[in-house]
Structures are given as C-alpha cells and as structure tokens.
C-alpha cells in the first residue's frame, strides 16, 4: 500500500474516531439535558398541582353541577348539596380535582399524575411497586424520588410526598392524620419519547455531517499530499531507480522543503559515488596489473631456467664449432641442436608474451583444455615436488576469454602450489555439467588448507596469509572478479591440514569469433 493511501486511511480513521467520540459525548450530554429538563418539568408540575390542591382545599372544595359524566364522590362526608334553584351540586375535593386533571393531561399526551397512599381511601389510589417503595422512603426522610423506566418508551417517574396541611385536617382528621403527617404522595410520569427521537435525529445529523466532512477533508488531504509529498517522492524514486544509467540531476524534484533537501543530498551522494566508482575502477585496473606483474615475477625463475638451459647447450655447440671450423660432421650434428634450442627459447618467450597481455575481457572461441596445458607448461619448474593430475574433458572449443582463463588458472594453481611447500598432489579437471550448459573447472590440492575463520575473506583484495615477498593478496581477488565479469561463480571448500578445492562455473557460449 502506498504512503498516500496509508496517510488518508490514518486521517480518515482519526476523524471517524473523533466524530464517534463527539457523537457519543453529545448523545450523553443531550440525554442528560433532556432528563434534567423532564425532571425540572415534573417538579414544576408538582408545584402547580400542589398550588391547585391548596386553592381547592382553602376554598373547602369545588362544587359543580351533577350530570351523567359528573357523579358524586362516594368517599366524601357531604358529596352533594342542593342549590336554591333545585339543582344538585357535587363536591370536588383536591384528590378528585387532581385525578380529573390527570385524565385531561393523559388524553393530551403531555403527562399523567395521581395521588397515592399506603393507606388509600379510594382503592384506585393504591400504589404500584415503585410508588410503594417511594412512600416507604418518605417515611425515612427522603424528600423526592426520580427514576427512569421503560414502558413502550422511556418515562421519567417523579414522586414527592403529600403532607397534611391545616386545610386538609377537616376532611382527613377522621382518617387519623394530623397536621404535618405524610398522608400520601403525588406521583408524576413524564414521557421522554419525544426527547429520544430528538436525540436520534441530532445524532443522525451529526453522523451525516461527519461523513460528509470526513469525505471532503480526506479528498482535500489526498490532493494536497499527492501534490506536495507523493509526486515529489515518486519523482525522486524514479531518479534513484534510473541511477546510474539514465540518471540526470534535472529529473530530481526542485522544492524548498524537506524533499528538496533530500533531493540535494541524493544528488551529492550520486556525485560522490561517481567519483568513487572512477577511483575504484582505476584501483581495480592497477590491482589487476600488479597481480599480473606479481605472477610474472614468480615465473621469472622458471622462465630463466627454461631459457638458460638451451642457451647453455647452444653456447657449447657454438664454441665447439668455432674451435673446429672445418669439421663438417661436427657442424652437421650441432646445427640441428642449435635450431631446436632456439625454437625452445622462442616457444617459451611466446608463452610469456601471451600470458602478459592485458586485453579487456572479450569472448573468443578457444580450446580451454589447451589453455590449461599451456599454463602448466609455464609452471613446470614449480612442480618438482608436486604430482600434477590433469583430467581435461572439454570435447571442443567454447566461447571464453582466453586471457582471463589463463590468469585464473595461473593464480589458483600458484595459490595451491604455495600451499604445498613440502610437496603434494594437485588435481585439475575440466568438463560440462549434466545439462551441458556450464563449464566446470576444478582445482584440488593436498596443501595446508584454509582456516574456517578466514575462508570468507580469501577473495578480499590484499588479504594474504603468506610471508612477505611470497604473495600480494591480489591473486584470488582478481580471479573472483574475472569470473564474475564472465557471469560465472567460484566456490571454495577447505579442510585445515587436508587441502583445498576451488570450483569454477562458467556459462557455455558457442557463437563468437574463433581465436587465432
């Protein structure tokens, strides 16, 4: 997943969590405010009902005309009186007024209320479980009870005690009440379903606004991030991928922010890498020449031996011929020897010249087994105490860099020879792998071997365990580089005091010019 999408997802997640917390918080706040409002509403209604009851009690009740819908209260001492006009008037005490007002309130859906008591005069005023518990608490000094119930929607239940006032004693004294006694309670129920609907509507509005704002903010941030961050980073990334082949400093983003500073640093790094690469190339070439010179130096003694032996014989022949200038038989016998000696010197010098060439790597068709033979012809003087076993099985010529192969064979063979100062066995083999796609060259010796702790370093330039003057530490490093340049591999296995084996794998190439 790209950085821009991670950034947008992170911002979207943060905004979603923030709006979720906001909705949750406002829902709680709204619910708290609604309940406080309903509770305050219940208190105000309670106060209004008490004032109404007080007015009715102070006026010794209300009298209204009796009708089919207005009946006398059977629980009153004098429920009906007759007017001078002959009409019957029925009395409405505070309890009756409260009940009838409650019926009107219930019909309007506003609220409902009623008077209840632990010792009701009218059985219809018997308390429910909540009211009963509240009345018992009022006996212990509690002044009001508020509770939220759920009966087809939330309802706030408010219950407050009713005390016997002086105006109430006239009617309630016969029930055993004295002034100040708690004779019951006023129970008020206020539905808050409307508030729940309002809260749900507000939450939906906040949710819709939140989704719209999250979408807009995410889109704006996406565009800003793409323009200010993603595109410059993509441009910088493409420049990094194009280095060093198609790299150009003009392709880097030119901004004045942190990305611009990073681009400047990358351009400076590329410049330093280019300079270092040039220096390393020069060092490599110099190391290659140094190693070749070092190898030639080790060959000097053997070459001198190969040249001095025929020269000494030819010198004796020349002296004998000079001493007997008229001896035709002597001349006839020595002239072929002189010719053979000169040809041997010519062959030795030609091998030396071929080995010392520094041509760049170039694939040409040649006989690899013949190249190996030529290398060991030059190394013959170093093999006095060493048994050389050649198992060369390459059936034809292959495309290879002849000079590189010579350098590799000479370097690894000299390394093996130096590891056997007291003599030993050197086995060299060549062949193809099972798929006939790779040339395999193997060099195995019975020398001192390589310690496990340094085997990973033997291909490092200038790393050597030989004494001063016996090696430069470049032979194996140069061989490794040459094999790599030919897209091959070189592996080493060694056991201390038992010997070392090098395995070189080179890809088979068939289509190239024939070496001459």
Mean pLDDT: 79
Spatial strand order of the main sheet: 9-11-12-14-13
What is the CATH architecture assignment of the domain at 361-516?
A: 2-Layer Sandwich
* Count of individual beta strands: 14
**C-alpha geometry:** rod-shaped
What attributes characterize this protein structure?
single chain; 516 residues; alpha+beta; Heat Shock Protein 90; five-stranded mixed sheet; four-stranded antiparallel sheet; 10 helices; rod-shaped
How would you summarize this macromolecular structure in one to three sentences?
With 516 residues, the protein is of the alpha+beta class. It has ten helices and 14 strands. Among the domains are: 105 residues; 156 residues, Histidine kinase-like ATPase, C-terminal domain (Heat Shock Protein 90), CATH 3.30.565.10.
